[in-house]
Design a protein that fits this description.
The chain is an alpha+beta fold and about 270 residues long. The protein contains six helices and ten strands. The strands form two sheets. The chain has a five-stranded mixed sheet with strand order 3-2-1-4-5, sandwiched between helices. The radius of gyration is 23 Å and the shape is globular.
């Protein structure tokens, strides 16, 4: 009989002292042909990072990138690593890489996913946030990479009770994040088109596009430009967060059996 595990009450005492990690697969290839995402969770601050991957074996170089990032940007080293015993985490190359960094490796017992519960819960939280935003904006399944990246951005800027109602970003960096530039995923935006890109001087100076998230560095935005679905980056746009260009009409989605013809209703009192 499988028994429940008691809740762990201990936490890391400083950032990056303990990092939880897990790999999530998706049934549909994304816009950039990704099939997986690897998540990293700081136990101290609950701050999260994700890197989208094309293949499972890309987890090794992605983890190397993450380790280098925390070293260079935050001047700290990972002390302990917690993950499950999936093949991407227990390969000799992966374990040797962590060992060469002086990182203590802790892995859950095979098939006992509760022992890596922090990462599992984070994946569920991020996935539910991402899918909710994607469904609201009627974005296709292959755009999951954009909704997931935006979900991570929102999650790191959401206050938590455990953090004394501060955000993971502030708890990790010591800086209160600004949400002035935060917008609703998938909403419409009239994006300024630079003169270098316009067809001619009489072409419109702005186009309606779909907002897909923050540009790296948070100094701009990324959009999907129709009808050929080309990614477009811009720093200036006028947003209409009540407009979802991919949802011209709110109709019942044809992905359930709810559109079947309803059975006849028997009036009160039977057939009499």
């Amino acid at each position: 009989m499988n028994k429940t595990f008691p809740t762990t009450k201990t936490r890391a005492s400083k950032p990056i002292e303990l990092v939880h990690s897990d790999l999530k697969s998706f049934p549909v290839e994304s816009y950039h042909k990704y099939k997986y995402t690897i998540i990293f969770l700081d136990d101290f601050s609950s701050n999260a990072w994700t890197i989208n991957l094309c293949t499972k074996d890309a987890a090794l170089p992605a983890t190397k990138q993450f380790i280098a990032m925390v070293k260079n940007q935050f001047n700290t080293n990972i002390v302990e690593w917690m993950s499950d015993a999936g093949g991407e985490y227990k390969s000799k190359a992966f374990l040797d890489m962590l060992g060469n960094e002086g990182i203590k490796v802790s892995q859950s017992i095979p098939y006992v996913h509760q022992q890596n519960g922090q990462a599992k819960r984070l994946i569920r939280t991020l996935t539910e946030k991402a899918e909710t935003m994607r469904f609201q904006a009627c974005l296709p399944p292959s755009w999951w990479e954009f909704s997931l990246d935006h979900a991570v951005h929102v999650y790191n800027r959401t206050p938590m009770r455990r953090l004394e109602w501060r955000t993971p970003h502030e708890w990790f960096t010591g800086e209160r994040p600004s949400i002035k530039r935060l917008r609703v995923l998938g909403c419409g935006a009239y994006v300024f088109i630079p003169s270098e890109v316009r067809e001619n001087k009489m072409a419109p100076k702005a186009e309606l596009m779909v907002f897909l998230g923050m540009h790296s560095g948070e100094k701009g935005y990324i959009f999907m430009r129709g009808p050929n679905n080309i990614i477009f980056s811009a720093a200036h746009a006028t947003f209409d967060e009540s407009l979802f260009p991919r949802c011209p009409k709110r109709t019942l989605q044809n992905n359930t059996r709810l559109q079947e013809i309803a059975p006849p209703v028997v009036p009160c009192g039977g057939d009499d």
